[in-house]
Amino acid sequence: MRTFGHKAWLAVASLGLVALASGCTSITDHRGYIMDPMLVDAIQPGIDNRTSVERTLGRPTFVSQFGAKDWFYVSQDVKSPPFRRPRTSDQTILRVRFDDAGNVAALDRKGEEQIARIDPEGDKTPTLGSERGLLEDLFGNVGTVGGTGAAPVGGPNGS
């Protein structure tokens, strides 16, 4: 029988370390519209209209529902580190504003400053009312639901 030498054990150990380290890398994912700077720069205010913008950039990610019917193209890069929540690493929002005739009035670009970071406080939502314990939750309605089935005595005021 032949046994592994020192170099063979070192190679196996280094391969194991590489396999472990590769499982701890972040995963980068792209979501939404894929921005092509040349196509975006080709859109000219006062020259292009809704039809030419749609032919150049494609359908928008969404159209505003209130006020002017602006078109929005949203692009995000999201990193997912191991054992943690995904975080937006890069974001670009392109807003195409149109005038009343349907021609491009302006193009606005926004970036990461539009990302809202919300950190909830605690794991419970406070509510108004009394604090009830476990036993009160389990047995709080005993005797009140269904009653005895007896007819009320007297008039509406209990007399």
UniProtKB/TrEMBL annotation:
Residues 32-105 form the Outer membrane protein assembly factor BamE domain. Residues 1-21 form the signal peptide. Keywords: Membrane, Signal. Pfam families: BamE. Gene3D superfamilies: 3.30.1450.10. InterPro entries: BamE-like, BamE_dom. This is Outer membrane protein assembly factor BamE. It comes from Novosphingobium kalidii. The lineage of its organism: Bacteria, Pseudomonadati, Pseudomonadota, Alphaproteobacteria, Sphingomonadales. The gene is bamE.
